[in-house]
Amino acid sequence: MQPNGGADYVSVCIDEKIAALLPSPSECCIFRVHKQLGGVNQKAYEPEIVAIGPYHRGKSNLQMMEEHKLRYLQLLLRRKNEINAEKYVIAIRSLEQEARRCYAEPINLTSNEMVEMMLLDGCFIIELMRKFEMAYLREKNDPIYKMDWTVNSLQRDLMLFENQMPFFILRKLFDIIEVPNQHKRLIYLALCFFRDLLPGPGCRESVEGQSNSKISHLLGLIHNNWLPSFVGTEPKGDLTKTRKNKHFIPNTTVLREAGVKLKKVEDGTLFDIKFKNGVMQIPSLTIEDRTESFFRNLIAYEQYCPDNQLSYITDYVRFVDCLIDSPKDVAILSRCGIIDNWLGDDEVVSRIFNRISDAVTMPSNQFQYADIFNKVNVHCSRRGNRWMAKLNRNYLNSPWAIISVLAALILLLLTSTQTYFTVFPRHN
């Protein structure tokens, strides 16, 4: 048995470790992607030209944009006839500790460094979005808006899971830069800035009725506004039942062989997929250079914030992953207008979706497309549907094939008639 001195020492050590604990994960909203998820495609989570917040700060390939952050602040102060940034610093310093608690990992910055980072990053984001919507605010030789690729990369980088800053920092700065408490205007500017990044319809244009206090950061804002029509309703189907039968549906090629017709639809959101009477209705999905990163970061957000919203991005990507097994599947979906392939390479698109669900934890008991999965698998299991599809594919797939089949049927009918009258001649 240890002496009291030893016990007291252990107690002191434990107390010190408890005091040094980071905030509870429930208080955090900005994380790093865990190794298993990030290992599938780490580049999809890394910024190309700008670091926001502490996780990627200081990387050599992102230093060019640090000068632009300072320049944007300089131009802002000049436009508002302000001699320095003192009131901005005071405003952000009052939120420093609250901002630190938003990060799941310790931030090795002094108080002054933290305030400076939040000020420069926040003002840069706000000015970038304001200039995107109001071209007259741009300087004549603004290097960011002179080249489209720069804006495209910034749109991508500002929605990365690890590249976020607390939204309340943006709100505080926006109060100073524009008009106090006009946060719906800030939300509107952000949604306009990211509109080109969305690979399909669904983003709410109106910001009325939205509670900006529930917005954690820009990625969370995108997720909360790029909504399917079924948000707020219970999923039609149970993933438990789906797994008991089949937790997948056949790929596009097999579906067509089973008589399933694929049809592009214009109405609704990207997520509003329907299946009825052997016809699968799917909205068009645009795939370009930023699409994989966009989906992966939204999926990461859903993995870490499962109670914030339904995991509809994860569900949708799982659905598309089932449809695509090979470049042939991509080609079929492209011909149907369901995939708008800006990459131009069917194999690349196939590879993206074949790996996009790797290391992703699927929902335990809810899946938005469970009912569709069940109906599709029932349809494909019916022998009659397969026979009819084979007939259509082999004999009725072109006008000439149909004419040939009809000619053969007429010839068979005439031959049968002639044979009948030969065997059973009519007697007058």
Give a nutshell description of this structure.
This protein has 20 helices and 5 strands.
Structure, described:
- With 428 residues, the chain is mostly helical.
- The chain folds into 3 domains: 22-225, no CATH class; 239-384, no CATH class; 398-428.
- The protein is 53% helix and 4% strand.
- It has 20 helices and 5 strands.
- It has helices at 4-19, 35-38, 64-79, 86-93, 96-100, 111-133, 143-146, 148-157, 167-177, 183-194, 218-225, 239-245, 252-257, 291-304, 312-323, 327-335, 346-355, 370-381, 383-395, 399-423; strands at residues 261-265, 274-276, 279-283, 285-287, 339-341.
- A 3-stranded mixed β-sheet has the order 1-3-2, covered by helices on one side. Strands 4-5 form a two-stranded parallel sheet.
- A hairpin with a 2-residue loop joins strand 2 (274-276) and strand 3.
- The longest helix is centred in the last third of the chain and has 25 residues, at 399-423.
- It is elongated.
- It starts with a helix and ends in a 5-residue tail after the last helix.
- 33% of the residues are buried.
- The mean pLDDT is 86.
List keywords for this structure.
single chain, 428 residues, mainly alpha, three-stranded mixed sheet, two-stranded parallel ribbon, 20 helices, 5 strands, membrane
Helix proportion? 40-55%
In total, the number of strands is: 5
Structural class based on helices, strands and sheet pairing:
mainly alpha
How far apart, in Å, are the first and last alpha carbons? 125 Å
Overall pLDDT:
86
What string gives the helices and strands in order? HHHHHHHHHHHHHEEEEHHHEHHHH
Transmembrane segments: 400-423
InterPro entries: DUF247_pln
Protein name: UPF0481 protein
Pfam family, one: DUF247
